[in-house]
Amino acid sequence: MKQTFVHDISHQLQTAVFSSGLTTKLICLFCIIGYGLSFSSQCVQILAVIPGRIMPPNFWIWTFVTHSFIELHIWHTIIDVIVVFLYSKMIEPLWGTKELLKFYFIVTIPNALFATFTYILFYGLTFNEEYLFERPIYGLAPFIGAYSVVIKQIMPDTIIATTPLFKLKQDHVPLLMVILSTILWLVHAVPIHFLIMLSFGIIISWTYLRFFQIHQNGTKGDMSSSFSLANFFPPPLSPIISVLANTIFEILVKMKLCKPFIKKYNVASSSSITINIPGAEAADTDRRRQKALKALNDRMKVKDLSSEAWPELDEVESPLLPPTHQLETASTIIDMNNSTKEDLNQPQTS
């Protein structure tokens, strides 16, 4: 069974490598090169983000771009390459090469900036200079976390694995990755910046996909209920996460980076109700809403068919009347016409 699983993974990876686009191949190639350069401590100091050297007078700002390609452990590099190839096989054909490359920089560069501010905050609380000069920030953890959000958007409610206790859905993957990273950090398997960057990668990617990404149909963001931040967490935590998500949205609105959310209802048709929500195409992101609306439309159509319209008054023949009644009506009209003609032909008497 293990041999079959390994064979399936290797076959899928081989297919993904040959079918992937240029952006995916370049990211993985730079990851492999970065791992080779990580054997030189001087290269790590130059390419990874060092918070103390980002600040004046050094301004090593190029490390915001190069830090994601550095990995110090071979198993980190292997995971990065496998995840990028397999996920990009699904994402790049939908988005295109430019959008995927744009998404990469949107996730990695702000993530390095947030991680730098976090290390500076740690230094302000502990006065430990290791956070400024001896703990580099590197790796592709934010991009892997961002991929889990994208797959959740594309395939919501997809069951990944079934166990006797529970069903693992795609919705649970981002939170599960954070929990697993926390456990690995507690046992000193990964550094603290891995957990920080993974968590920020999930938040940044969700914010971009939720409010800013422009789709091919001209819509912006994805305001569907199935992609709300609360759906990433179990129901007991959903109210707390909803407050956090609403706070992020209000901040973006006040900064004029987002427009207030407006729902448009089209009730012009009496047989159906159409709800237009800004966001991605409904086929990918809001299938449950479409099913509910379809069921509502079907019920209203059945109700309309059950009530038949009354016949028009000026119809001579009506399918609701028997043939005998129709003949009597026609003869009556003829008799009235004849009587009228006879009256007109009689001589008038004074």
Automatic annotation (TrEMBL):
Assigned GO CC terms: Golgi apparatus; membrane
Name of the protein this chain belongs to: Transmembrane protein 115
Location of the region described as Disordered in the Swiss-Prot/TrEMBL record: 314-350
UniProt main location, coarse: membrane
Source organism, top-level taxon: Eukaryota
SUPFAM superfamilies tied to this protein: Rhomboid-like
Any Pfam family the entry gives: DUF1751
Database matches in InterPro entries: Rhomboid-like_sf (IPR035952), TMEM115/Pdh1/Rbl19 (IPR013861)
Membrane topology: Multi-pass membrane protein
Polar residues: bias regions: 326-350
Gene Ontology process terms (BP): retrograde vesicle-mediated transport, Golgi to endoplasmic reticulum
Keywords linked to the UniProt accession: Membrane, Transmembrane, Transmembrane helix
Membrane-crossing residue ranges in chain numbering: 26-47, 59-88, 100-125, 137-155, 176-209, 229-253
Location of this chain's protein in the cell: Membrane
